[in-house]
Specification:
alpha/beta; L-2-Hydroxyisocaproate Dehydrogenase, Chain A, domain 2; three-stranded antiparallel beta sheet; 9 helices; 38% helix
């Protein structure tokens, strides 16, 4: 099973190493604008193979290296700097995607595309528009990372294993993300009924979740480890056909009046990409916040002249 990673920055290279360690892929290709950087990263990881528990072929190349990949992960793009929001870099990344997506398609039209580059919801929509591929095959990493953070913080508060916490975050992977408190639970027990629940502390936990990336960037250039783990989880769900429910960014149409925008929604992810998008019943305040999140993203697309219908078939 082959994965091609576009972009040899912090996230792209950490993802490659995470996939190498996890061992469910047999081939990893790294593509970067600066060929020497991709070559050096691949070479460094190749030096670790003798101590790995499995055999993995890892190398660098140009876009031709995407040929034969079941999954193409796009991490390339303009990076945010301290104090800058994800949405502020949309114009620069739109220009990059206009060139990048057709370059990949020239060598591989059959892969599932997994977009990680921020602002991920906007870039997922752009990838769909520029590729013309079915919406099921263009997936944004979405709020999988935010859910991962949310579950981790909640598990520490309640002193339970993170896997026992069900906490969904939908909408934008950014400031307007929405926690589904109405659905949050621990092993089926509503959060509000679990010992140790305190509403103000729950709000504080979500605030820390929402500001997670900014908090990391106060002390270092980029988030990478948690991001790589969350993306690797999506890659694994695709390659191993796990049918895992993940809050990935996908094209949304006709959901509470929302249309033609990519947002994170719980979706079944497998070998065909997004196999089903789930439509949870939302509380009134959650619905209103989702509408606001969609409006913000559509406004961003309009600001760069990309507010027409996305390519591919209709989504949920």
């Amino acid at each position: 099973m082959k994965v091609a990673i576009i972009g040899a920055g912090h996230i792209g290279t950490t993802l490659a190493y995470t996939l190498l360690i996890k061992g469910f892929v047999s081939e990893i290709a790294i593509v970067n604008r600066t060929r020497e950087k991709a070559f050096g990263e691949a070479l460094d990881m190749t030096h670790a193979l003798a101590s790995a528990s499995h055999s993995v072929k890892i190398y660098s190349g140009d876009y031709r290296a995407c040929e034969g990949a079941e999954v193409v992960v796009v991490t390339a793009g303009a990076a945010t700097v301290k104090g800058q929001s994800r949405l502020e870099i949309v114009a620069a990344n739109a220009a990059i995607f206009r060139e990048l997506i057709p370059s990949i398609l020239e060598h591989n039209r059959d892969a599932i595309f997994l977009v990680v580059t921020n602002p991920v919801d906007v870039n997922t929509w752009l990838a769909l528009r520029y590729s013309g591929l079915p919406w099921q095959r263009i997936i944004g990493s979405g709020t999988v990372l935010d859910c991962q953070r949310f579950q981790s913080f909640l598990s520490r508060h309640f002193n339970v294993h993170p896997a026992n916490v069900q906490g969904l975050i939908i909408g934008e992977h950014g400031d307007s993300m929405i926690p589904l408190w109405s659905r949050a639970s621990i092993c089926g027990i509503p959060l509000a009924e679990f010992p140790g629940y305190d509403q103000q502390e729950m709000e504080d936990i979500f605030d820390i979740t929402r500001r997670g990336a900014a908090m990391v960037r106060v002390t270092k250039d980029s988030t990478q480890y948690a991001t790589a783990m969350s993306v690797a989880r999506a890659v694994e769900a695709i390659l191993l056909d796990k049918k895992e429910v993940l809050t990935v960014s996908t094209l949304v149409n006709d959901f509470y009046g929302i249309g033609d925008v990519c947002l994170s929604m719980p979706a079944v992810v497998g070998k065909r990409g997004i196999e089903r998008v789930l439509k949870p019943q939302l509380a009134d305040d959650e619905r209103d916040k989702l509408l606001r999140s969609a409006a913000i993203l559509k406004g961003v697309l309009a600001s760069v002249g990309e507010d027409g219908p996305a390519g591919g078939a209709s989504g949920v």
